[in-house]
Write a structure and sequence with these properties.
The complex is a heterodimer of chains A (350) and B (169). Chain A has helices spanning 20-35, 87-96, 141-160, 178-190, 199-211, 252-258, 276-287, 293-319, 326-331, 335-349; strands at 39-47, 54-62, 66-74, 106-110, 120-124, 219-221, 230-233, 236-240, 247-249. By secondary structure, chain A is of the alpha+beta class. Chain B has 169 residues and is mainly alpha-helical. Chain B has two domains: 1-48; 51-147, no CATH class.
């Protein structure tokens, strides 16, 4: 990996939209420069699964390194969470390498875009499959149970890490409580004049901000820890993905997010197989962190609030910033059901 | 015409032109896609959201405003619009949508007011009743929207699988 301030890096190019052919050419230039060996890009293709960063799979071929299967992730200027920062992802991939939390190996990153013109990072390709979180499938329940248990144990490993002295500590800003600041951030996002106004979100956002529990401990939080954000291979979880929302905060946040029925084929069971009580018991034993019913209920409401805010970011990216991905447009249709579920979750948390 | 309706049609046309046409070498398929684009351009000129579900929401909001006004009699509260806000036969969906959105903002102001410390200190029971009424009415309004929302197809949408996943081969 080379740091962002590599000498001789060209200045930012800043094209207005991500063009796959241009990215491919620039990628070859970038890898050639950082490796000092002419690099050719083959098998280059966009993967469709991500909603935020644009993901490409490719093979980098050079005399020095031979063929390497790699992944490029680019933050588009009009994407879901634009403007993008590579810092959280880079911080996670660097800090967690060799820990109990499996992550892809980081190859390169550039916040200022360098040859490609947009924030990006490159990491190693990890063999395996990404399970789909939204629909029930025909995977053997015993296999799913084994994966779900690993999923919880890895979360516990993440929350056991002391962030002090790791690059994660740099993600902590200011004196205000990070949890409250995050809620305020989503409230501000929902209050943008171009967003449709939902009265229950306005009212519920204030309630969350006023009633956010003091965490019993503050840990590394993945921020999007759910079925669908990991790779499994031969019955093992081989990589945890999508660290763009990672931060320091209340560990209940990850637990509540992971158990949202939306990410578990509408089931209250994790991955459709692990009962809630079993998840909590396993997590507590593996992490040594006591789960508070009150905090978990709060973060289950917060999860739906955040999901609603993310959907509104998607709608905005499509309608206002004209990011042409029809999947974002379709997200608007999910808002009524999310807002209703949020109202019920608030009732349970109050 | 509603801006979001026009944007949606533009998005569908762009998706077809940018992603489907370049990846299709079959003349028949390309003919179908270009015909679909032509039809969508026609819809853009002639169609809009259906007005009735929007009207239904505005009527529900009006009922809520009237009830809140009665319950909040004698209290200092955010402005409540005179109702009904629509008289006669109105079919301009964009105009009704704007009224619905304005109604949502006013309902939000009332909900924040009714759940605030100040009004609770003055008349706890009335404020709690208004808060309950508003929450229920807003949820009822969401039900009207849900009735015009297709069933979620998130997996297919995310991954592009036609049959909902590899397991179905």
């Amino acid at each position: 990996m080379r740091p962002d301030d590599v000498p001789d890096a060209p200045g930012p190019v800043r094209p207005v939209a991500v063009n796959d052919d241009a990215v491919r050419t620039a990628l070859a230039q970038h890898l050639s420069r950082i490796s000092g060996s002419r690099t050719e890009i083959t098998s280059f293709g966009r993967k469709s699964s991500g909603f935020s960063w644009i993901t490409y799979a490719f093979v980098a071929r050079s005399a020095a390194d031979g063929d390497r299967k790699l992944i490029l992730r680019v933050g588009p200027p009009n994407g879901l969470f634009a403007p993008y920062s590579v810092l959280p992802q880079v911080c996670a991939l660097q800090s967690l390498a060799g820990s109990g939390v499996p992550v892809p190996a980081l190859v390169s990153s550039e916040q200022h875009g360098a040859e490609i013109g947009f924030p990006f990072f490159i990491c190693a390709h990890v063999e395996g499959d990404v399970p789909a979180p939204w629909a029930a499938n025909e995977i053997d329940p015993d296999h799913k149970r084994a994966i779900a248990r690993q999923f919880v144990e890895i979360l516990a490993s993440l929350h056991r890490i002391d962030p002090v002295g790791t690059p994660f500590a740099s993600l902590q800003q200011g004196g205000e409580r990070a949890e409250v600041r995050a809620i305020a951030g989503w409230r501000a996002s929902l209050a943008r004049p171009t967003a449709r106004y939902y009265p229950l979100l306005d009212w519920g956002g204030r309630w969350l901000e006023d009633n956010c529990p003091q965490p019993s401990c503050r840990t590394i939080v993945h921020g999007d820890y759910r079925i669908g954000n990991f790779i499994e291979h031969d019955g093992r979880i081989t990589a945890i993905l999508d660290w763009e929302l990672t931060h320091l905060g209340d560990p209940h946040e990850d637990l509540a997010w992971a158990m949202m029925p939306t990410f578990n084929a509408r089931s209250r069971k994790l991955y459709g197989v692990l009962e809630r009580a079993e998840v909590i018991d396993l997590y507590q034993r593996a992490s040594g962190i006591a789960v508070s019913d009150k905090s978990l209920a709060f973060y289950e409401a917060y999860a739906l609030y955040q999901a609603a805010a993310i959907q509104m970011c998607a709608v905005r990216a499509f309608e206002v910033d004209r990011f042409n991905d029809m999947r974002l447009a379709v997200m608007a249709s999910q808002m009524p059901s999310i807002v209703r579920a949020f109202e019920r979750a608030l009732e349970a948390a109050a | 015409m509603s801006a979001s309706f026009e944007r949606l049609i533009d998005g569908v046309i762009d998706a077809l032109q940018s992603h489907v046409v370049p990846n299709s070498s079959d003349d028949f398929v390309r003919g179908q896609v270009f015909s679909a684009i032509y039809a969508l351009n026609g819809l853009k000129l002639a169609a809009d959201w259906k007005a009735e579900p929007l009207l239904e929401q505005v009527r529900l909001q009006d009922d809520t405003f009237a009830t809140v006004k009665r319950l909040a009699d004698g209290m200092v509260h955010p402005e409540i619009p005179p109702t009904p806000r629509i008289r006669g036969d109105v079919s301009d969906a964009a105009a009704i949508e704007a009224l619905r959105d304005d109604g949502d903002r006013r309902l939000g102001q009332l909900l924040l007011w009714a759940s605030g410390e100040g009004v609770r200190a003055g008349n706890r029971d009335a404020a709690a009743a208004i808060e309950r009424l508003l929450r229920r009415a807003i949820c009822d309004q969401l039900k009207i929207e849900l009735a015009t929302t297709p069933k979620s197809m998130l997996q297919q949408i995310a991954g592009g699988e036609r049959d909902g996943g590899a397991a179905q081969g």
